[in-house]
Amino acid sequence: MTSTIGATLPYKSPEKAIASSSYSAENDSSPVDAVIFAGSSLVLGTACRHLFNGTRVPYTVVLLVIGIVLGSLEYGTNHNLGKLGHGIRIWNGINPDLLLAVFLPALLFESSFSMDVHQIKRCMGQMILLAGPGVLISTFCLGTLIKLTFPYNWDWKTSLLLGGLLGATDPVAVVALLKELGASKKMTTLIDGESLMNDGVSVVVFQLFFKMVMGHSYDWGSIIKFLVQNSFGAVGIGLAFGFASVFWLKFIFNDTVVQITVTLSASYFAYYTAQEWAGVSGILTVMILGMVFAAFARTAFKGDSHQSLHHFWEMAAYIANTLVFILSGVIIAEGILSGRAISYKGNSWGFLFLLYLYVQLSRCVVVGVLYPLLCRFGYGLDWKESIILTWSGLRGAVSLSLALSVKQSSGNSHLSSDTGTRDSHLSSDTGTRFLFLTGGIVFLTLVVNGSTTQLLLHLLRMDTLTATKKRILEYTKFEMMKTALKAFANLGDDEELGSADWPTVIRHISSLKDLEGRQVNPPNGYEAGSLDPTNIMDIRIRFLNGVQAAYWQMLDDGRITQCTANVLMQSVDEALDLVSTSSLSDWRGLEPLVHFPNYYKFLQSKIIPRKLVTHLIVERLESACYISSAFLRAHRIARQQVHDFLGNSNIASTVINESEVEGEEAKQFLEDVRDSFPQVLSVLKTRQVTHYVLNHLNGYIKNLEKVGLLEGKEVSHLQDVVQSDLKKLLRNPPLLKLPNIDEQSFIERSLKLQEFGHWRETDA
User: Fold this and answer.
1) Given the DSSP bridges, would you call strands 498-499 and 414-415 parallel, antiparallel or unpaired?
2) Which residues of the chain have pLDDT under 50?
3) pLDDT digits over 45-58, tens only?
4) Which of 249, 295, 293 lies closest to 270 in space, CA to CA?
5) What is the Cα–Cα distance from 207 to 222, expressed in whole angstroms?
6) Residue 507 neighbours by CB under 8 Å, 6+ apart
7) What is the Cα–Cα distance from 604 to 327, expressed in whole angstroms?
8) pTM of structure
9) Helix (H, G, I), strand (E, B) or coil at 420
10) Considering only Cβ atoms within 10 Å of each terminal Cβ, which end of the chain, N or C, has fewer?
């Protein structure tokens, strides 16, 4: 099998690692003690996340410190931590390939699967620039500075290895802060997407230089071949596993456990296939796999299944992050206390801070050199966003995982491909220094960059709310007061406990303080200058978000299919890009899917079987009716929400009028179909009603169980019956029965529905 970092490393068993670490295991020690370390790490990680939630201190920094403390106690006190210490030593001796194979798929799949695919497509050019040329520029800048200024006598390959290792960014703290402060979605997508692609490219560069350090010889042709094979091979494997898994999910019905298991098994199996069998980048493979799921399978997970899937992968990524950071701290402490030299004349900390400055300088060079191109791709980039992009180059779990693999692999002898002798090209001291410097950079970037990003956003005035958002926020608070008063009227007095004290209730609800007695009317706030472009853009965004939410609800209710939902969601994403320059335009992306394309005219040819032509036309008609009816319903729901929220204000009327104009063609199309082929609409409505009734019955059964009227076995029996009916409906839905006309006449009448790009009835 091809090793993650070169197929030259022997397996280093925990037992051997422990035996070589200057300590004698106690008689009651057991390999099961490794579980104690994992469990303790998760408990400490949970406590840190709870205690430091809401503060500017990233909890991962605290985990690194905890790991250093645990390692110092264990390795500095001659095994005084007992079984926990034995578990620490077992984890310290785990094979580096195993570490990467366990942690990286969990860290990367969650990030790639949660990405907004439409935003990724728009920002892809910028992301490729930052993850391709950007990583190479950063690697060579850092490698050159390290080689010329650091006193460790490293050769160019070793210096560039550290430069490539530090190329993987992890701006989780910055992205979370940007989302919290309401920064533009394009900014968060660019930073998050760049990090994701950086991880894949950085690991490929890292693997190349690691093999060179371990004695492999490469000329320029071999280097280019290696990079191309790793990159395109990983993309191919990721696409293959992705589409196979998406196809599999189509046969899984309402089984959240199986759906989640498919994503889990696909991510780890894809990583193993790419990394160990094909010898290409497993990280890139998992990244592509996650993006395929995000693009083609997000509507396969409905309602609670969708939430359960994201929660599962968030938990998996959280566990991996916790173990990586604590284990890194432990190994840093072990390297310092075991006698391995990480210092040079006492200046190791000075070189760490110097490396931090180099990392920031290389990031400035990358963004500065690529800035003219970044401004021309995707959504563009202004100077304020470029500053945030530069400052967001944090390092995290991926860099630490790679440093751990270097540390665990250092000092091991291997068979040289050139001389045939067993040599060690990477000393234990060098491996320890790599981990020390990487852990220090992760610590400094998280503490300095992560904690000061909010201040930087404030100085650049990127954290201020627009006048529209302030007005809506203020009005929402008063609507909350009305809602609270209604709730108090319903619950404030009952025959068992009597009445409640309203002033005390208000005192305990901080969000309602100082609001009682004041009134606000948002429509009045919009009258003056209400047609300001910024205000209109903001309401259009909220309107389209409401449309998309309605599509999700229709998918859960069975009103639309997964394929139709994907098309409808994409139309909203495309319309959101245009809200600042044009009126509502989500019908623009749907119109070509409703009209018959011109090539359908060739279906009238006698050569093509009539049965096939009829089937294709019926499918097209049904799809067009699904799209049109869902579009009209979603817009009607969103219009009502905007009216309820903003009343009859000018800005609300403007957006509502735009929506009504958008729906005219969809309404005309359905009227024409109703006049020509009412059977089509009847069949679609029958499917919808059947699906809705079955879903309603399912909810009724769950409610009976909730109130205690049904027991587990009874619930299972009834739910199995309903689920069986739902499966039959999806696999064998009610089919369209053609009217009493021949197929050729039906085909001609269907194709005549469209004339000059607009639906019109032409058959008397």
Assistant:
1) unpaired
2) 1-27, 344-345, 414-424, 527-529, 755-764
3) 888 888 887 776 77
4) 293
5) 13
6) 513
7) 69
8) 0.76
9) coil
10) C
